Amino acid sequence: MGFKPDLTRHDVTPKGLYLNRRQIMAGAGGLALAGLGGRRAMAQDLEPNTLEEISGYNNYYEFGTGKDDPAKYAHMLTTSPWSIEVGGMVDKPGDYSMEDILSGVDIEERIYRFRCVEAWSMVIPWNGFELNQLLEQVGVQSGAKYVAFETAYRPDEMPGVKFPVVEWPYVEGLRLDEAMHPLTIMATGIYGEPIPNQNGAPIRLVVPWKYGFKSIKSIVKITLVDEEPPTTWNKANAREYGFYSNVNPTVDHPRWSQATERVIGGGIFAARKDTLMFNGYEDQVASLYEGMDLSENY
Ligand SMILES: Nc1nc2c(c(=O)[nH]1)N[C@H]1C(S)=C(S)[C@@H](COP(=O)(O)O)O[C@H]1N2
Ligand SMILES: [Mo]
């Protein structure tokens, strides 16, 4: 099963135009914003968000719970050198530096819909590699059934971790077949540039058919295990956040509908967009959940 892109280079704002727009925006403020609105009004549904939107409206609670906190504070995170401790049920456990990791994988662009459980969404042009390439490098042993991920925990560099909003470090997990799926990537860039700190530098998970909180940022540890690993939001509130957290417009959050979403950058008068089953990746991932009750396994 190969990756079938539904958003292509054709949907990306040409790089020249994009850079030019940044210069225009830096110089002309409100006027440029009016131009952006016009561009967006004519644009197709699937056009990627601007880098300003992607890196200015974030959830990264280690730097605070406000949407603009990560852009203010994430520069404090030292992202180089960086390594990931890979362990558990693998043939080659160890500390893998970013250089080690990047030398064995193919970086490509993936333009994915990104849907937060809070019912907002963007389209993001990631650069990254399929997680299965890293897992093949380290040799997954036959008993492994899940992959557990952990974010850096650095009180000196992360002003938000002094608040016990969730249990630190932030942890996430995938079933092994979800982790091996060609849509699941480790992202290291956006728009061809290194990924901004607030988006999870230097390396974060992206699982486009799941709610955004599954896409754990600034990963320092990956462990292959044989039981479903604990996950941050499930530990915080198991009734509201399940292990699977597949985007599903027919299964509402206990406190709000998941049928529609607010498109970031769409403007205050923009209509909400209908949320797609598995965030639009149903053809590629529905078979992973065959026979499962998706309202029970939310
Ligand atoms: N370590 C860590 N990873 C995280 C989060 C977080 O607070 N800490 N927030 C999650 C949530 S709720 C979302 S929606 C996405 C947001 O990614 P973005 O800021 O790149 O859009 O990151 C996810 N990964
Ligand atoms: Mo989210």
Automatic annotation (TrEMBL):
Record's keyword terms, sorted: Metal-binding, Molybdenum, Oxidoreductase, Signal
Pfam families in UniProt: Oxidored_molyb (PF00174)
Post-translational modification comment from the UniProt entry: Predicted to be exported by the Tat system. The position of the signal peptide cleavage has not been experimentally proven.
Reactions mediated catalytically: L-methionyl-[protein] + a quinone + H2O = L-methionyl-(S)-S-oxide-[protein] + a quinol; L-methionyl-[protein] + a quinone + H2O = L-methionyl-(R)-S-oxide-[protein] + a quinol
Names of the cofactor(s): Mo-molybdopterin
Enzyme Commission no: 1.8.5.-
Molecular function GO terms recorded: oxidoreductase activity
Domain of life: Bacteria
Keyword Plastid listed: no
Function: Part of the MsrPQ system that repairs oxidized periplasmic proteins containing methionine sulfoxide residues (Met-O), using respiratory chain electrons. Thus protects these proteins from oxidative-stress damage caused by reactive species of oxygen and chlorine generated by the host defense mechanisms. MsrPQ is essential for the maintenance of envelope integrity under bleach stress, rescuing a wide series of structurally unrelated periplasmic proteins from methionine oxidation.
Stated family: Belongs to the MsrP family.
Alphabetized HAMAP family for the sequence: MsrP (MF_01206)
Name of the molecule in the record: Protein-methionine-sulfoxide reductase catalytic subunit MsrP
Species of the source: Maritimibacter dapengensis
